[in-house]
Design goal:
Layout lengths: L2 H25 L4 E9 L6 E5 L5 E5 L7 E10 L4 E5 L8 E4 L4 E4 L4
Parallel strand pairs: 3-5
Antiparallel strand pairs: 1-2, 1-4, 2-3, 4-5, 4-6, 6-7
């Protein structure tokens, strides 16, 4: 098969996958999701990055002390490659947080 045909097929396949992923991300808008905080986001701006249980990346603002913890995040943006969110409940610093190292569950509503 000619390289040109292979390239065209790959491009069509990748475009379809991006459409499907974006549609999947849009279905999450407005939902509250549990996120494992991994570290600082590649997006910069003081954002953190974490992953849903389905391995989707979520970027959101929060303190670096959340790294390694599970937090509740409201999904407010849907992109082709990642999601944007904010800590839940709005106005709290931590929302519902579980420290994976200590295995303890803590509910914090402090600002």
């Amino acid at each position: 098969m000619p390289a040109e045909v292979k390239g065209e097929r790959l491009a069509r396949l990748q475009a379809l996958q991006e459409e499907l992923t974006l549609a999947s991300h849009r279905r999450l808008l407005g939902s509250i999701q549990e996120v494992l905080v991994e570290g600082t986001s590649r997006q910069g701006g003081g954002q953190l990055a974490g992953r849903l249980r389905t391995n989707q990346i979520v970027n959101f603002m929060g303190p670096a002390t959340l790294v390694g913890q599970l937090v509740q995040v409201e999904i407010i943006q849907a992109g082709r490659h990642s999601l944007g969110g904010r800590l839940w409940p709005v106005g709290s610093s931590f929302g519902l947080v579980r420290d994976l190292k200590a295995g303890q569950l803590e509910v914090s509503t402090t600002c």
